[in-house]
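Provenance and format

Records in this collection were gathered into a single text stream. Each protein contributes a sequence line and a token line. The two records reproduced below are adjacent in the stream.
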Amino acid sequence: MLNNVSKFTFKFQFFSFLFFFLTLSTFKSQDRSVTITFEVKDHTFGSVQGSEIQIQSDENQYKIFTNDKGIAVLQAVPGSYKVEIRKNNNLGYSNTITVTKAETFTAYLTEKINSIEEVVITAKEGKGLTSSSIISQRAMQHLQPSSFTDLLELLPGGRSGDPVLNQVNKIHLRETGNPGSDYNTSSMGTTFLVDGAPLNSGANLQYTYDFLDKSNTGLKRRLNITSGVDMRSISTDQIESVEILRGIPSVVYGNLTSGIVKITNKSGYSKWKARFKADGYSKLFALSKGFENKEGDLKINTGLDYLDAKSDPRDRLENYKRITANLAVSKDKKYDKGTFRWQSHLSYNGSLDGSKSDPDVDLSELNSYEVNNHMFSLSNLISYTKTEPSFYRSTEVQATVNQRFDKIKQTKFIQLENAMAFPLSRTEGEYDGYYPQAQYISDYQVDGKPLDVFVKMVNNFQLDYKWLKNEFNTGFDWQLSKNWGGGQQFDIYRPIDPKSTFRPRAYRDVPAYSTAALFLESISTVDLGTNKLTVALGIRGNSMQNLPSNFTMNGKVYADPRANLQWEFPSFQMANKKAQIALTLGYGKQSLFPDLNLLYPELVYKDVQQLNYFHNNANYRRVNYKTMIYNPQNPEIEPAVNEKFEARMDFSLGLHQLSVTVFKENMDNAFRSMNQYAGYQYKKYDTSGLNHDGMTAPPDVNTLPYKTVNENFLYTTHRNGSRIDKEGIEFQYSSNRIPVINTRFTLNGAWFRTKYGNSMPVYRTRDLTINGRPYPYLGLYEGMEPNSANEVLNTNLMLDTYIPKLDLVFSSSFQFSWYSMRKLSPMNGVPSHYVDQNGNIFPFNPEAVQGTILESLIIAQNNDLYNTTRRPIEMNLNLKVTKSFRNKAIVVSMFASRLLSYYAPYSVNGVTINRKGAQDPYFGMEINFNL
């Protein structure tokens, strides 16, 4: 964060010097070079990423790798070249070409390579500057997912689990433990991109009042507010590949803390594909088709899928449904000096989540709720790539509009416990209330229409000189978030929660906000003899706009510096195989701005009864309230910042691959809800002097005696108070396919340690009454929030076998959780200060308060709570089989999760917990048609 001019000037000078130094010798270029573009595809016309392309002549030699779209671009001197393309060190294409001008070559890898070594059904670790996992369409097909949540099993440290589709599925990268909603920033700070278009929304306000009051209901599980993307809503059937970046990404990406999920949808020709899946929890149907003209410059892809899931197949009253439709168009136009590409993606996603009460339990048969989310997304990407040698290389502009139509509908039968009264005022002051009926039906609706607009431009420049290659990325991005919905809608005479402290609010009245960022990045590659050094340095300036003038963030720029370095050592021979070692280091900061819910929270209404005179005659009743309104908005809130460091070692020996990553992340200002105190004064009317039997009219408050009462209370606000520290080791090893049996061994795993805590003091009160009145004091505690340390060690050994003659793939996955541990740090129940009923703050002396009512502020601690909880080994065996018929026209798959399992018993406070039979096997199957 640029807190002052001197710090900003220093950072600017520092990075300017680095950029200048790296580009000092790059002002001479080779005018004779021409641009060659390679498109590498497999036998099914699918793009092949990570292919190694070598072209060689008598005078020159070049080597480059294809990107995630199977495309590679290089500069070469005109002449005749021999071209060899390898995948996983296996030669898949060989030819001779003559280069005279800028030209595009398309190469198709042989079937042999694709059918043996290219059958990868696990996630592959990326070799780039940041740690990532790449999941192919073949791996997804073998996994048989119902939603994106299932794919996380393939990450290092991931484990399979039964689908839980009756609640929000949040993503947790490099994290263990379940600390609660005050630590959602990690999930909120994971960006989901579909062909570059963001899915995250900054304008989601879909919550209910019982959610704000922190009551635990079934509806609360379905609310996804300030916690990122709900992975249930993402279908996998239209996805070509997924790359999950866990490390330090390029400065091109921002407004995040944890990582990036890059989803690439299918593009190009494909047959009609239909998928039917059924398991114990859900049924799924998907249909897709890809079209492509003869020239290959126009591609149209479309798809549709439907999911119907139940949390319990025996319960027909609770279900979740998802409908997804996609239409994508891509058009290429080649000119003499460059290539123009236009990509457009229109999609619809609908999630219908609801429950009805059981008539055998709820005799009213009225209680029900629904959470319906509908999103329409339109994204357009326009890019221009220069084909002639020049400093300027390409420009990419993307604009995305996401419009959601969200509704929460709830019907509830209310039975009041006693003669309650409701306040009605929406302004401060003294007002009469309302006596409702003892029974009523409440209809409650939350209407949200979040609109998110994203615009991004990335310009690429390149300067090469002999052994030094420099690439520059510069540009900007901008986001607008606004909610046009009607908001909370209910009859104030029939509230859904009789004890609610809120009033209806229209979301359209909440101001919009926007964020803007500028970024600059230099990627330099130097050949030092037979060594290769790649250095990426970048800085990103982020700002939030359209804020009130009293906000700390108003007019401020927050800087995210990031650096990645990779050293590739010379290859050498070992056991008659080519060996390669590369070391990668990374450091960076990642900032996440608060969303609308954090910036503009609900107003808090404090309604205090001053008079409650209940008479048998309804005409003589009167209830009087004093209404006070408090704004919990926190103008001091700032972006959450995650500081990351990681080191990675990649080793390859032939087709054997080993990757080990060590990481450490620190975020001490994540978003959380915290208590804030306020004092108030009201009148307590005395009705003891009234003649109850002789009343002819309601009591007159102007003539009643009263006494003035001072009290204080707590309400919730949002602060940068959560601390989330992550550290760990991730690893993955994959072998070649062993000849004869065609089996590959893949071993991956992770050790994670995550610490959760609160970095700020908290206010608390005691639930006590003294002489019929609430306890008058509040305590300010430095250590009364549970700080926990969580650890887990998971490994996954997969044996997958491919039999080409039968076109059969089957895999066995042995998943181990060697141990999981949780330890709570002791809390300090002695406050540092206390607040009296007039709102004054005083130091708290534990010795001086002994024998007084202030002594009740000391909260006794149970030391047994701070014992370490450790669970021993857990093991599951999962089986998956995929079989193709009629030249892949029909593909049948089945899976069996936890076919065998072992859960070791353990003891807690001397009590042995036997977990034998705690987890049942889980089965499912699917069939795919390719017509």
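Adjacent record:
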Amino acid sequence: MSTSMAEERGETFLTLFRHAGRHAAALVTEALGPQGRSDILQERWGVPPEGFGDWLAGHGEADEVRILLDRWGLTRHQAALVAAREGLGREISAAVGSGQAAVTAGRVEKEWLAAPPEFLRLHSNNQPLPEVARRVQARLGTDEQAWECAFELLVEGFTGDLPTLLDAAERHAATGVAADVRLDPKSSIEWLIELVPRDLGPRLLARIAPWPLHQLSQGNRRIVQPLIDTADREVWRSLFNAEYRLKHRSDDGAATIERAFLLRNDPLINEWLLTGLTGAEPGRGYRLAPSIRLALLEGRPLGPDAVDPLPRTPAVHTLIAAPPSAPWDADLLRLCYDSREPGLVAQALRASVEGGERLLTAYQQLVAGIRLWESGRADELRTLLEERSNGIRDQDVQDAFAAALAEGSAQPLRTAAAARREQGDDHLDEALRVWGLRLPCDLMSYDLRHYTQDELAAASRDITRDPWYRVDWDLVRSRLADPAMRHHRRRTRERYGALLARADCPPDVVTALTGFDPDGLDLLRLYADRAIGIRALSETVFPPLFSSHAAGTAVDGSRPGPGWAPAVTPEDVLRHARPVQRLLPHAPREPLGRLVAELLRQAGADTPEAEARLWLALRRLTPYFSGTLPQLLHTAARLSEGGAPLDVVSAADFLTGPGPHEAAELVRGRLGGSPGPWVHAVRLLAAGFDGTLPELLDAASADPQDAPGRAAVVHGAPAALLGLAPREVVAAVVGRLDVPTRVVLVRTTTSADILRALVRHGNRLVWDALLDAPRLKNPSEPFGWGRAGLYSEVLVPELLAQDDPWLNARLVRGECAWARSLDAANTEAVLAGRPFGPREQPVPVLPGLRADFEDWTPDSGAELPKWTCNADFYTSCEPVLAMQALMAVRRSNYQDPPTSTLSVRKSLQAASTIAGAGRFDLLEYVVTHWHIRFPYGEHRDIQNLFARAVQQRSATEIDTELAAAD
């Protein structure tokens, strides 16, 4: 068990114990002993139950009382208990006094008497304690002049303590600062801005000089909205230039700022977002999702209570009418085929027929023609097709356009489009690509978590009402029934997840596409129906190998919000999802308290003594438990009656806690050294065996019965159990397991021995699952193997050693696409047919692998796959790969553009291969695009050398130069 998971399970007890009854908590506190009480006293963020403080006040050691007093303070009852005691020290006695009143926590008083810069250093989030914030708000109240005075004093660098600052503010002490003067903050002011009355914050922030705004908003998203609410164009411009980064998001800060700007529905802001406003740093721009850029170009409002269409600035109208440039890209053009703005439709169709890349499909070209015809632009369509008739590649589409222009009617286009819609498989794949682009961000992007349910619901409405694409749900079901789809849910979600955006997505498809790492799009469907949501939660596990963000999303999505009324409540999530440890940090306090009280009653804890026994049992139990909250309290009630966790905890939970080490001897003694019992035990666990570990060992040692069924929840227990087996048995056990059980092991193991056995006894399904297994790339252990160890040093070499043509191609296209020297060496070996394992004969190369690049020409308009782009291919004997080595660029710093990493000698070596093979078209491509290799025009002599070789159709001069370089 990882350290992080152990900490979570320790926190589980503390989180639940806060809801203990007063008298029961006092009994538990006494029974915990010094070390147990110390564990709770070290908890900084939660408040322990009142009974815990009562016992410490009456019976605790002086150090325990001192910590209690400093962290949480004392109630009046606790103060009286402390005052009645002797020997606790003068400091405690002075703080408690006569014990007639409650005592504020020491840390609150310390912060209250500190100067603002000092007390902010006490907290990582630059926020005062809630009690300190309450005191500030109570002192200044609704006196706007007092708030403004405090603001000015703080900006000017006030160095006194908080009471002195507030005294001066209440007196409206003159600061000597004119009301219209822009201020440069000399200390942190954001904490005060968050406490002022809502309408006052923007007015105060409007007085801040524009240049330091990035210092205020950096790392503090709560202040962004007041900054934007100033409605000051200079403030907005400063935010754009200094803080607003949308090319790459490292957290949800950029997404928050983006939405805050977009929801203002301001034409100037929309222009900035589209054109990429830049400031001191040249080249900085903002790359919004294609669907959002399309909405801004069309004038569609993204915030409430706005006219539709929004006014658009002249610059935006110029973007629509001018040839495509920024903010245009292929994905944006692909969405414009049916835009409500005819100019955008014309842009998309023009780019499709003029460009070398197939931006629009044949069906989308037909739809674009229909939309132009319906908008009265038939003449423009005629002119475009007469100029570029060869830009439409499909014969039936050419015939339809010709017939439409000849007849003066769009009916031939509609007929051809209807025929295309009948091509079920192609039509579905095309629809999935389009709907994925209509989402506010990439389907598999982490950013998808940052969008609220109402924003996703708006995208869902657009996708559901799409008049041009329909879904054959029976076709979808048949595809999802494929074993490869069932076992590789991430890949399935990546391909079909856009279907979750449709309001008519059937429940069985929803269930097939959602997994244990849900985001807002999953919850949009799962939580819309209570029965579906509860069933999904019951079949979901949030394992330690994933971020706790998934569990937080599951809890937060059950809370009502603007435009979102889920049918599932937080109590439903806490009742049915597992493990409880992942959910509790995100659980609302009141629903959790109600549920705990109800479950305690059901468990029969109707007296303080019975409840105390249950809490003590729960403390022993949580390290071994990975079930739901009701199961946890029910099992704790059983344990409180006597016995050990081994006797009451399910085998799966026991084995994924600290149990394997405690029970290793028991398990090995019962299952022995032959594979049979181990195979049966692993299969039982994979099928969802819910008995205890002794019961599992009894069942595994007995004669195997019929094959167990499949489990709904993927658990780490089978891998944990097999990890206890003797090394010489592991391979034999894996060899006798069925494929679904091996896939369960793939998803949960981090054992090198099990991985090797899975590879050697695998088939394509198992190999594919191994390459997709998230735990291998992101192990839960804080100091685990990681990608550089278990994955690349054990798994990939073992897979290559199988010398399977299909597997080699899979590895080249996936794992060798990282542009490393080792990737280039492995790829070259695969293409040459050299074996990696014991095989002596050459390994056939999958024909499709060579087809990825062999026939490519610069005029084809096709994009070469990522795996071909590697600077270390300069030694390749394949001309296309050598060309890719020449064109590979890398950024060496943040200021300069990417450049080629090849030395002159290596460039000559790659060029010699290209010219020697007679592929002067490739060498000409390199010469023409020299500015990509060297943006500042370096090595013009080498460029001219290559140009002469192209002109002469000879490699002689290049070879001579290469020989001289050697």
